[in-house]
Amino acid sequence: MSSSGPAADAVTAPFVEVDVDLPGRREGKVRVSYALGEGRRLFVTTDRLSAFDRIIAGVPYKGQVLNQLSAWWFDKTADVVANHMVAVPDPNVLVAVDARPLPVEVVVRGYITGVTATSLWMPYARGERDLYGHRLPDGLAKNEALPDPLITPTTKPPAGADHHDEPLSSADVVARGLVGAADWELIRSSALELFRRGQLLAEEAGLILVDTKYEFGLDGDGAVLLIDELHTPDSSRYWMLDSYAARLGAGEEPESLDKEVVRRALADAGFNGDGPVPTLPDDVWTATSARYIDAFQRITGLTFVPGEYPVAARIGDRLEGWQEAYG
User: Fold this and answer.
1) Helices 62-76 and 282-300 sit at what angle, rounded to 10 degrees?
2) How far apart, in whole angstroms, are the C-alpha atoms of residue 80 and residue 226?
3) In the chain, how many domains are there?
4) Is 182 exposed, middle or buried (0-12, 13-18, 19+ CB in 10 A)?
5) Is residue 1 part of a domain?
6) Is the pLDDT of residue 260 over 90?
7) Residue 122: pLDDT above 80?
8) Residue 238: helix, strand or coil by DSSP?
9) CB 45 within 8 Å of CB 64
10) What pLDDT does residue 164 have?
11) To 10 degrees, the CA torsion angle through 66, 202, 257, 116?
12) What whole-number distance in Å separates Cα of residue 119 and Cα of residue 152?
C-alpha cells in the first residue's frame, strides 16, 4: 500500500496500520474493529483511501475526519433511524453496538454522474436505460439532478475480495434472501429520509449531497441499525453549490469536496480497479486532504483540530481506559 500523502513526515505520516490488543479483529478497507465485550465493538478509522474497491493510499487526518464527521451525522439523524454509535473517546475511535452487517450497500443517488462501473452515468452514456430496477428517461445530461433520488443497491464483497460490487435491484435484495422483506422496506424508507436530511443540511453548508452509501446491520435482538459511516467524503459525493449551475452549463465537472478527484485521476491514468495502481502526483493527495478537512468544517461549522500523531501509539496508550469504561 502506498503511503503517499501531503507532508508525510514523522508527525503526519498516514495512519494506515493498527494493531490493538483486543480480540475479534475485523478488517475493512478503512476501518478495523475489535470486540470490547458486553455487545460493544471498538472501531478504529485509519487514513487509508479506497477507490475502485481497492486501497489506494494513505492521507493524513482523513481517518479523523471520517470518524468525527460520521459521529456528527449520527447525532443529527438519530431520529430517522437508530444507529450503532455509543461514544467517540478518541478522534479516530468509535465505540459502537456490535451489529451483524447486512451484505448489501444501500446507495442513494440524487444526480446522474460517476466514472466507475457501478455509477449511473457510465452505463447510461452507453445507451442503457434500465438500471438497478429503475427505468431512466432519455435526455439526461451528465451531472444533472435526477427526477427523484433513487436507491441503487449493490452487493458488499468482503475486504480483500477479488471481485467488485454487483449492481442489484430492490427486488433482487429480497429475492436472493440478502435482507428480509420487512427489514428491507424499513431500510429503503430510512435511506431516502437520511438522504433528504443530508441534502438539507448540506445545502445549509453551501454543498450539494450528490449521492451516498449507507450500510445497515442487525443488533443482537435482530433490530436494524445504521452502521459504519454516514455522509462522509468517503461514502458520499459532495459538490460546491455556488458554482454548480455555471459549471454544469459550461459542460465542466462540478467542484467537489470528496475523493472524486482521486477517482478521476486514476481513471485518467487508465486505471479501472484492475492491475497495478498508478502513481499519482503529490498535488492529488494534497488536494484530497484539504477537501476532507474543508468538508468537515463546512458541514459541522466546527474548526478541525488535528489529533496527535502517531495515531497508533495514541490509541494504545488509551486502550485500557476504554476497556474499563465500555467493555
Assistant:
1) 20
2) 10
3) 1
4) exposed
5) no
6) no
7) yes
8) strand
9) yes
10) 66
11) 90
12) 9
Q: 19 in a domain, yes or no?
A: no
- Could you report the per-residue pLDDT of 70-108, keeping only the tens digit for each? 999 999 999 999 999 999 999 999 999 999 999 999 999
Query: Domain with 147 in it: what CATH number?
Result: 3.30.470.20
123, 160 in Cβ contact below 8 A? Answer: no
**How distant, in Å, are the alpha carbons of 4, 31, 63 from that of 323?**
33, 19, 21
CA gap 281, 233 in Å, rounded: 20
Min mean pLDDT across 3-7, 97-101, 164-168, 309-313 is at 3-7
Report yes or no on 5 lying in a domain.
Answer: no
Whether 296 is covered by a domain: the verdict is yes
Give the H or E element holding residue 327. none
Place of cell 452487493: 155
Mean pLDDT of the residues in the chain: 92
Q: What is the pLDDT of residue 6?
A: 39
User: Can you state the angle between helices 62-76 and 181-204, rounded to 10 degrees?
Assistant: 110
Beta strand residue intervals within 21-136, DSSP E: 26-27, 31-37, 40-45, 48-51, 54-58, 85-90, 93-97, 100-111, 130-131, 134-135
Taking residues 43-50, report their average pLDDT.
Answer: 96
Which pLDDT score, from 0 to 100, does residue 53 have? 79
Q: What is the pTM of this model?
A: 0.91
Q: DSSP string covering 260-310, please? A: HHHHHHHHHTT-SSSSSPPPPPHHHHHHHHHHHHHHHHHHH-PPP-PPPS-
What helix, strand, coil percent values describe the chain, rounded to 5?
A: 30, 25, 45
Tell me which DSSP letter residue 144 carries: P
Give the distance from CA 165 to its chain's centroid: 14
> By the 8 A CB rule, do 226 and 283 touch?
no
Q: Please report, for residues 118, 192, 199, 237, the alpha-carbon distance to residue 195 in angstroms, rounded to integers and kept in the order given.
A: 19, 5, 6, 12
User: Could you list the residue range(s) of the whole structural domain that residue 125 is in?
Assistant: 26-326
Distance, in Å, from the CA atom of 318 to the CA atom of 184, rounded to the nearest integer, reads 39
Render pLDDT for 280-297 as a digit per residue (tens, 0 to 9). Answer: 888 888 888 888 999 999
Whether a cis peptide bond, with omega within 30° of 0, leads into 310 is yes
